[in-house]
Amino acid sequence: MRRTWGTIALHAALVVGALLTLTPLAWMVSASLMPTGEASSFPPPFLPRHVTFEHYIELFTRLNLSRGFLNSAVVAVGSTLIAVLTNGMAGYAFAKLRFRGRERVFQLLLAALVIPAQVGMLPLFLLLKSMGLVNTLWGVMIPGLASVFGIFLVRQYALAVPDDLLDAARLDGASELQIFWSVVMPVIRPILVTLAAFNFLSMWNDFLWPLIVLSDDSKFTLPVALASLVGEHVQDTELMMAGSVLTVLPVLLVFLVLQRVYTRGVLMGSLKG
Amino acid sequence: MSAPWRSAQARAAWLFVAPALLLIGVFFVVPVVGGLVLSLTDFDLYAIGDPSVARVVGLRNYHQVLTDAEFWNALRNTLYFVLAGGPLSVGLSLGAALLVNARRARFPGLFRVLFFTPVVTTLVAVAIVWRYLYHPRYGLIDHALGWLGLHPIDWLGDPHWAMPALILLSAWKNFGYNMLIFVAGLQSIPEDLYDAARLDGASAWQRFVYVTLPSLQPTLLFVGVLTVIGQFQLFAEPYVMTQGGPLRSTVSIVLLMYEQGFRWWRIGLAAAIAFVLFALMLGATLVQLRLQREERR
Predict the structure, then answer these.
(1) Does domain A24-271 sit in CATH 1.25.60.10?
(2) Which residues on B lie below 8 Å from A171 (Cβ)?
């Protein structure tokens, strides 16, 4: 009898917890479909009386949020493609290729992990300004093009690549680049996908750095565009919710598709502790 | 392996690590060192046009930061966020992990994904959502308080409630991440330990206190360090929800750095704030490592 009650209480807690977790997101979607003003009526309604897509249309036509969408996509996809290549090559080399100073350089990289990004932001801004990269999408992407965390992830995974496999390819006369491309890449592909998912999500969601680098609204990424929109349209609850849905939707989709891959990254990242 | 192979391998290795090291070196290491230099100068708006007008002023920026009431206010707010929000967030994570990992729980995978969902959402977007949820008249949160017979709270308009409001949002957004790490920690505890405790007649609570918690020590430390480091960097929530108000009650250290550096262009001063933040984060991490070591004794 006590067991049954315990099981019921356990599942009640799980369901209530899940409902509380999802309510803000469900309300965001629901309010984005309400006619203007309905979300600001009393008592606050949870579901729209009539579903309307007018706010989405307004965001794409009059407010030109499609521009922000495009900018965010370019930044997240572009930086991810490059990051997978740079971190993938470096992580593999640190794991499998013998060269002098390998351990020392890797230790130095790990030590850099303790430095928060904010410490370098002001000089990085000045540096990019002198390079003419302020207010460009390249400027937004730069901190995401290579990362210690990414190198670390790939290295941990690549350690398990058998040396015999590489030596056999070397005996066949393959160059190191060929070996990386056609022998190693297929083997470490799972971790590269994890890395890509991590990088995509963090670049898409990033706020402080793009806010610093971008000044021209035609260059804004979605989070920056949204934050500036809320300044002018704070009364338009339904419109702001539609903007929030558009911003969150792509990352939610990526997460749902790559959920297993992504959580592996979280756990591998925690192994170093 | 013969010698020519090895040198070819070393050459290739340097080529492989070069792009990443170059990017990290130029766009991270150089700026960090540059930041230290900047923090010792009076670099400002004029110096952006002509860097030669900047002068070295020694530790004046640090002195100014540490004697500035604005900075102490930001430090107090940030510590409030870390010290109240950290335990809340870690506690929620552990609770959720215990529920999801319970032997009798159905659909553990589904609940894990549901609890994790807020983690991947865009902070700016959900901060805007919560800004409306906190509305004293039209917000769902005060509406729910009304059902419980409580008075509505002017969450973001009352200096006493604005920081708790940010803490709640942040706990909701982040607890799923640490939950995953706790679940992995829980799963690595050998079942024998629980069986032995059961044989000794330990209750569920006693098993939690004497088996689960001690076995989770390394996980707790890792989660604690990671959470505190993340929370010291509080920025987007106050920027989007309160702009640091009301009455500067939610200005965080990073928000202060942003205002000084990128609104007023006091770059030298803002660089000093960044390094003070770095020192605080290092200090907080060392304190946690020390506490853990003492507990082991």
Answers:
(1) no
(2) none
The reply to whether residue B172 touches residue A21, judged by beta carbons under 8 angstroms, is: yes
The Cα-based distances of A104 to A108, A227, B22, B244 in angstroms read: 6, 43, 16, 43
A270·B32 Cβ contact <8 A: no
Note whether A267 contacts B184, CB cutoff 8 Å. Answer: yes
Angle at alpha carbon of residue A185, lines to A180 and A191, rounded to 5°:
130
What's phi and psi for B41, nearest 5 deg? -125, 170
Q: How many CB atoms sit inside 10 A of residue B41's CB?
A: 21
* Local structure of residue B217 (DSSP, 8 states): H
3-state DSSP call for residue B148? coil
User: In Å, what is the CA distance from A105 to each residue of A43, A109, A180, B14, B277?
Assistant: 61, 6, 21, 11, 26
- Residues 193..212 of B with a Cβ closer than 8 Å to A: which? none
pLDDT of residue A273: 40
Q: Which pair of tokens denotes residue A194? A: 């994890």
- Tell if the CB–CB gap between B140 and A126 is shorter than 8 Å: no
Q: Is the CB of A21 less than 8 angstroms away from the CB of B126? A: no
* Mean pLDDT per 10-residue section of chain A, whose length is 273 residues: 83 96 97 93 89 95 92 97 97 94 94 91 95 96 95 94 93 93 94 95 96 96 95 90 96 92 83 51
3-class DSSP state for residue B67?
A: coil
> ipTM value of the model?
0.93
Predicted pLDDT at B78? 98
Distance, CA of A137 to CA of B296 (rounded, Å): 49
The distance of B159 to chain A (nearest Cα, Å) reads: 20
C-alpha neighbours within 13 Å on the C-beta side of residue B4: 4
Neighbours of A227 (CB within 10 A): 20
| Distance from C-alpha of B213 to C-alpha of B220, rounded to nearest angstrom | 9
Residues of chain B in contact with residue A116, where contact means CB-CB under 8 angstroms, are: 229, 232-233, 274, 277-278, 281
Q: Helix B30-38 vs helix B267-296: angle between axes, to the nearest 10 degrees?
A: 110
Q: Which of A39, A21, A19, A22 is nearest to A242 (CA)?
A: A39
Q: Which residue is associated with the tokens 């990289």?
A: A109
- Scanning B154-183 for CB atoms below 8 A from A yields 172, 176-177, 180-181
- Give the one of B180, B239, B274 whose C-beta lies nearest to A267's C-beta: B180
Identify which of A10, A44, A244 has the shortest CB distance to residue B139: A44
What span, in angstroms and rounded, lies between the C-alpha atoms of B258 and B273?
10
